[in-house]
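Re: [help] complex structure
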Amino acid sequence: MTTTGTHAAAAPATRRDRDLAVLAGPVATTLKYASLVVASLVAITPIITVVMAAFKTQEEFRTTGPLDPPTSWTNVENFVTAFTRGGMLQGFVNTSIILVVSLAGTILIGTMAAYAIDRFEFRGKRVVVGAFLLATLVPAVTTQVATFQIVNGLGLFNTRWAAIVLFMGTDIIAIYIFLQFMKSISKSLDEAAMLDGANRLTIYARIIFPLLKPAIATVVIIKGIAVYNEFYLPFLYMPSRDLGVISTSLFRFKGPFGAQWEVISAGTVLVIIPTLIAFLLLQRFIYNGLTSGATK
Amino acid sequence: MVTVTSPAPQQGAVAAAAPVPRRGAHRWVSRFTPWLFLVVPLAFLVVFTYVPVVNMFWYSFTSWDGIDPVKEPVGWRNYVEIFTRPEIFRVFLVSLYYLVGAALQLVLALYFATLLSFNTRFRNFFKGIIFFPYLINGVAIGLVFLYFFRPGGTLDATLAAFGVTEPPMWLGDPSLVNVSLAATSVWRYMGLNFVLFLGAIQSIPNELYEAADLDGASSWQKFRYIIAPGIKQIIGLSVILAISGALSVFEIPFIMTGGANGSMTFVIQTVNTAFTFSRVGLASAMAVVLLVIVLVITWVQRRIVPDERGDLS
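Output below.
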């Protein structure tokens, strides 16, 4: 009875999984579960109250407290308002376009860079590797003051390309993940193909790239979350209303819906739902992806 | 096993037949090939990271407004202004709230990670709930907590249930606003540290625990002598990320208060200086100051906790 549905998959019970009770007695066990329940309540309560507010009518919102559940859980009026008048539909479309293009670009750029660094010996390699390493130390938010001039100079300001090129150009984590994974792919595959007369491009495209699938999945997850949640780049580079992504569309709710918390709540819930679905479906990959991405 | 459909076999045959001239060409080609793969990645790296950094240093010695074709050099004046006008540098004090928050966040994350590394009912359920806030969109979190902290909002209603009838203005009171915002930040980021710590703890080999059991070690001793050394690396990394994160706080306060009521942070101020007040020169100098501070902190960390894994190549 100690396993929930997904438990078995994530952490097979091993001999080290001893019960704390055996080691420290029932008091410790009670404290342990009490602290877990408190942590869960702290994590969930702010979200639950927003979900409840999203189902309330304007009148109901004014007369009930935040902890009172709505009378009807099927009142979707606020969601409709958020979606149509709040520009959420446009936001989801723009986010999707940016997400797909920048993911494809990141994967292509990252795998090419990793292939060149891992599979070739060439003069200047140390400098190239150093250049990528050094760039990880520069916090992106500080350089926007100057990056803005570049993006503007390239004529990309107020286009989706601004966000896309910046997402593609600044992802060194992805290169690390590809590189780490590529080291585990045996070089004898390359050599065998070369004996068969394959050129380097063919080896990259037909052998290495397909074998990188697990690393690509990791990058898609980490990068996907980052792009979906990014606020500042679209806020700064795509101020036009039509170019709102979900973050900036939701941010604009603060103005026109300033006092209508039930509509703001509905918009917020709409943004959280895709994240929740992705999390429930991809839990294990997300945990693994973050672990491999953050420790590089 | 590897089947390749390309005209390349011929090429090999030709090279074998006429080795001398072909070799030279081949060597030239193979010296050139890695750069074919690197040209696009390097172009992005240079255009969107290195050129901005270099430009930033240059702008920081000018009084540029971002539009004027002429960038008037002013020497060190921008830097002098940053360090002599107290209202610019004082905002770094706001970072102290986030630093305290970050310390609390790491302690909590370590506590829950250790707890869940023991056998626990509904382990994955608790793990998921504690972690999930990290995945949520920053603007959504900002709005959730505006609702949470507003007068008569979730927090006030919860406190009222415990008999607190006159709660303070969580975001309106300048002495409280940074505490509220730092707490929001802890709520958002704790889950990431927690999952990273938990992963590190679970990757410690079992034999160590078994040996400790044989020696009759207590749970505290196991934490002190097995778990703590095993996750030293990831803790060191998290501390550095927490410090540089606290110095460059941006999203939560920008979304929730816009920097009002004394919640201004250095990055919000830099951004406002550049894009609201059009003082790109001064803003660049501010960004350079922050960049240098972050680099120094990272350098100190590298000295204290050497990277055992070796580098990229």
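The radius of gyration of chain A is 24 Å.
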